[in-house]
Amino acid sequence: MSAIVNGAGKVVDFVDERITASNWLKRNIRKVFPDHWSFLLGEIALFSFILILLSGVFLTLWFKPSMAHIVYDGAYTPLRGTGMSEAYASTLELSFEVRGGLLMRQVHHWGALVFLAAMSAHMLRVFFTGAFRKPREMNWLVGVTLLFLGVATGFTGYSLPDDLLSGTGLRIIEGGMLAIPVVGTYLSWLLFGGEYPGDDIVSRLYPLHILLFPGLIILLVTVHLMLLWYQKHTHWGGSGKTNKNVVGAPFWPVYVFKAGGFQFIVFGVIILMAATIQINPVWFWGPYDPAVVSAGTQPDWYVGFLDGALRVMPPWEPEIFGYPLTLSVLIPAIILPGLILTPLALYPWIEQYATGDRREHHVLDRPRNQPVRTGIGVAFITFYLQLWIAGGNDFFATVLDIPVNWITRFIQFGLIVLTPLSFWVTKRICIGLQRRDRDTLLHGRETGVIMVSPSGEFSELHEPLDPHSAYDLAFRERQLPIDPGPATDANGVPNPSYKANRRRARLSRFYFGDVVQKPTAEELEAAQHHELERGDRQQELTSGQQ
Amino acid sequence: MKSPSSRPAGRRSRLSRALSSRRRHPLAAIAVLVAVLFTCGGAYAALAPSASVSTDAASSTQIDDGKKLFAVGCASCHGLGGEGIVKEDGTVLGPSLIGVGAAAVDFQVGTGRMPMAAPNAQAERKPVAYNDEQIAALSAYVASLAPGPDVPDEEDVDPSAGDVARGGELFRANCAQCHNTTGQGGALSMGQYAPSLTGVSPKHIYEAMITGPQAMPVFNDETIPAQDKQDIIAFLKSVEEEPNPGGLGIGRAGPVAEGLWAWLIGIGVLIGMATWIVTRSSKS
Amino acid sequence: MSAKNEDMNGHSSSEIVASDRESTPASTSHEADPIADPGLHHPPPRLTDVDPKAERRAERQVAGMFSLASILLVLSIVAYIVFEIAPDDPDDGVSVGDVQISNFTLGITLGLATLLIGLGAVQWARALMKSPELVHERHELRSDDNIREAALADFETGTEETGFGRRKMIRNSLLGSLALLPLPAVVLLRDLGPANGPSPVDAKETTIWSEGVRVVTDVTFQPIRAADLELGQLVNAMPETFEDLPDHGPERINARAKVPVMVIRMAPEELHVAEGRENWHVDGIVAYSKICTHVGCPISLYERTTHHMLCPCHQSTFDLADAGKVIFGPATRSLPQLPLAVDGEGYLIAQSDFHEPVGPTYWER
């Protein structure tokens, strides 16, 4: 053991003599990392990504990214004699002739599904807790870009085996491109090397999938982590935890072992899924043939919302200047992703505009304390989930025995009605929770013990919170709508920025107008005084049995 | 256990005393119930009309038997002569069966779809209401109305004599769009559906192709010859028996199911792990 | 780049915000906290911290997990060797059951091994590492004002040394060349598409269907006699000229994305014949393009009883008894119909190519 330590010491010595390593080590080796389960969602994404990289390298050693047409003569007999591309044939080879090949394919694909799910969950966590506020707006942008790159990498990846399912997806992409005005046909021409499908697309998607997109992801993940490292992780406020400190376990050894251990746990769970649950059985789908389609054709889950949008879109195709503008395809395939990504990316600035808040924020918000932000998030999730369900409408129609047309109609209706409804319901729930918090602070915790006063009045005994819990519960800011100020100053000179101030004040009122504030010190004192008086007057009501 | 009888003790028979003394026995109710059940069951078995049809192979008897069965079980929707019934508003109560052939009857009745339990978007597979002889009789009767597709011979539908790979190509080109590439079935419009093909007998698969039941189109032997149909059947049976090398098949349903499980199991288990990781071990 | 005089929280003197309070933004109240900070809540000691037996047990637990992981790793190699998938006779083809066993054993051993390593590491940290809870101060992220000014001054000095502002000719010519720099990169991508041949728009307007081309069954390529088709029959069909296409290259697969048709027979009285299409059907036999006009999936979910054709991708539904009109779903154009006729021997043939481009709508359609 001491030999290892000595050896390690020699290495560190070597490096330190050349790049002053100990400076950096001294500052960072005991860096503090706050602990909360929701802080590990990003780690799930990171660790599943690493597993994807490792399994992906394995796959590249056998996969042939070629659409050259061959007649299959490999090990899987139900497809012998069938014409297919070399890409598909090499995928069959990996699955049936390489030990561990099917396992690695499944690790890679389950890993990708988990990667995108973890990124989405992580993004939602950051959103609902306000961790995107200053100074972390840049990291938020990096994150949104990573999410987009993840979807792009996933799509290019599952299109590589050139099976019926993913080939149908490529056809839909081509149809989507054709709908783009003026340049659509040319864009499709360039991407596919001529008419659809040509024999270039798989070999063109291949370098995007194994080199360009993962390279960008690695680069951006590094930026993401560097920003996080430098700015330090946010934490929940409370006893001893303020906006000016960070409390938690030291990087070395606790965080290294917990995070490093979690890495292996993520590996293990994904590998176990790959060992026990089949995913993307391409031999059942058959090779891609543009004249063939299967019932139950869906893209991977993270593209499902786009397919759903295509399914529920009404058939609008107005004419402009004598040319057809296929909105029924353009809106779901091209405009919708932009409509989702843009406000998502810009959200930190939208909220900053509403609050006028330019301070650094290192303490997280409880979602209930930001009813409008939380409501917006839930409305977004509702919208997204409805589109995802729409994308699987024939699957749900079969499983639930409902006509597929009804599901389409219901989602069309729900997108317009359920989405704002979910915002409103969430906001009211948050405000209700805030009221309960305020009551708990003012009157204490309900104990379940019933008291009766001499006049016969029943009431419940409340127990005051202990100082730690009380402080934790009260740890939030009072947020009030912005006051736009007077339209004119004392001398009657109109304020030039009054209109802009008023617009901002309106948005600010939307955000904070209904918020239930925490009690002031005076209100707290008054309430505690009231409780003491009441406690003196009443006797505890005990149950009948002695 | 006291007897509530008001008669003086000596006047009652030994039997009646014995019986009445057991009237209030805890198992008395069960004994009565069992006795009644056996009585009713026995009476039914003895007195109910015989369900079995004569096994006489003479076809004219078979057609007569079929006609009788038809009149009872099918004519209310399909008409006494199988000509079909159209209501005044134009909706078809039961389509004409003239020319559908023995194959159609063998399929519809043999899979339990007919007789239909209630008007629906589509008749569904359910427990078969008739036995094999009755189905043969019905088929013979309907076949006698006009020439139509016959029930195939067993060798014609034997999966072991079909080319699985070729059957797969044919299936994917002609059938997968409705039934899915592994025959899991799929949704059609307005409540109709292409059913799952797992567990369907080779004979019924053949008959469905050749008669085009309900929403399914017809694939006659001129455009998909009998050998091709046998290949398709061989493929379907092969796919059905083939294990899932990757583990649980999760319905062979595709990315919707896969996405659900990635979230439920993948993210679910990992979040569970995360809640454990951030804690310290049990306190003293 | 002028340096605004901003305080620690981002408020400058030119701030629009009405409130002028120093450390809080306009939307936050100035009221003091109602409760004082009681300081960090220190968690109670763990069982392993006070009880040496518990500590040893935890040690054994962790070591046990690591040891079990080692065993499983070795077992995975054993599984790789023992559970073969290559058939003894290559002509036989693989047994899928063998692949299932191999996948399962390799995956379970490797998965459990990695999981156990992770669990052991985490449990070590949870139960045995005596690290205290640390508190670090966060430093303000904004640089000190004097450093900002010094940096700015250095930059301005360097800029002044270039004379960039004064030397307008250099500046303009540099900017000009930089603006043009990305253009060749874009232009170099032009040959992603074919250098010659028909334009994308022209290519969409014709297919290999033409007058007299026989309609043949897909996969088996047999010609179709009109008299052989029954009412309610569906045939997935191709043009006979498909087989003349070259074997290598993309022409065959490209054709399969344009020319497949569905041939259906319905009773002539059920067919609502559109104007100008009176002779497109042969005694109730019609042919339609199989490529959906929404985004191009091949369709052919024919619902016999209603004559509707459903596309499984996005549920566009077409009425084949009414010139392929769209009756449900997002498709905007009716399905192109192929005019049919019969040749001298009674086989179905096309009268001509489609009268409109096949597949999804595009700008120049």
What does this structure look like?
The complex is a heterotrimer of chains A (546), B (284) and C (365). Chain A has 19 helices and 11 strands. With 546 residues, chain A is mainly alpha-helical. The termini of chain B are far apart. Chain B is 48% helix and 3% strand. Chain B is built from 11 helices and 4 strands. Chain B has 3 domains: 39 residues; 87 residues, Cytochrome c-like domain (Cytochrome Bc1 Complex, Chain D, domain 2); 87 residues, Cytochrome Bc1 Complex, Chain D, domain 2 (Orthogonal Bundle). The N terminus of chain B is likely disordered. The radius of gyration of chain C is 38 Å and the shape is extended. Chain C contains 8 helices and 12 strands. At the A-C interface, helix 5, helix 7, helix 8, strand 5 and helix 10 of A face helix 3, strand 1, helix 7 and helix 8 of C. Strand 5 of chain A pairs antiparallel with strand 1 of chain C.
Mean pLDDT of chain C: 89
In CATH's first tier, which class of the domain at 202-350 in chain C applies? Mainly Beta
Shape of chain C: extended
**Assembly state:** heterotrimer
Q: Give the DSSP E fraction of chain A (strand runs of 2 or more residues).
A: 5-15%
Key terms:
heterotrimer, A: 546 residues, mainly alpha, Cytochrome Bc1 Complex, Chain C, 3 domains, three-stranded antiparallel sheet, two-stranded antiparallel ribbon, 11 strands, 7% strand, globular, C: 365 residues, alpha+beta, Rieske Iron-sulfur Protein, five-stranded antiparallel sheet, four-stranded antiparallel sheet, 32% helix, 12% strand, disordered N terminus
Give the SSE map.
The complex is a heterotrimer of chains A (546), B (284) and C (365).
Chain A: H1 2-19, H2 21-28, E1 32-33, H3 41-60, E2 69-71, E3 83-85, H4 86-96, H5 101-128, H6 137-158, H7 164-178, H8 184-192, H9 201-231, E4 235-236, E5 245-250, H10 251-276, H11 282-285, H12 304-312, E6 319-320, E7 323-324, H13 327-355, E8 363-364, H14 371-391, H15 393-400, H16 404-443, E9 445-452, E10 458-463, H17 467-474, H18 498-512, H19 521-537, E11 539-540
Parallel strand pairs in A: 4-8
Antiparallel strand pairs in A: 1-5, 2-3, 6-7, 9-10, 9-11
Helix pairs in contact in A: 3-5, 3-10, 4-5, 5-6, 5-10, 6-9, 6-13, 7-8, 7-13, 12-13, 12-14, 14-16
Chain B: H1 14-22, H2 28-47, H3 59-73, H4 75-78, E1 85-86, E2 92-94, H5 101-110, H6 132-145, H7 164-174, H8 176-179, E3 186-187, E4 193-194, H9 202-211, H10 226-241, H11 255-277
Antiparallel strand pairs in B: 1-2, 3-4
Chain C: H1 47-50, H2 52-82, H3 96-128, E1 134-137, H4 145-162, H5 168-180, H6 182-187, H7 200-205, E2 215-217, E3 234-239, H8 251-256, E4 261-265, E5 285-289, E6 301-303, E7 308-310, E8 317-319, E9 325-328, E10 337-338, E11 340-342, E12 348-350
Antiparallel strand pairs in C: 2-3, 3-4, 4-5, 5-10, 6-7, 7-8, 8-9, 11-12
Helix pairs in contact in C: 2-3
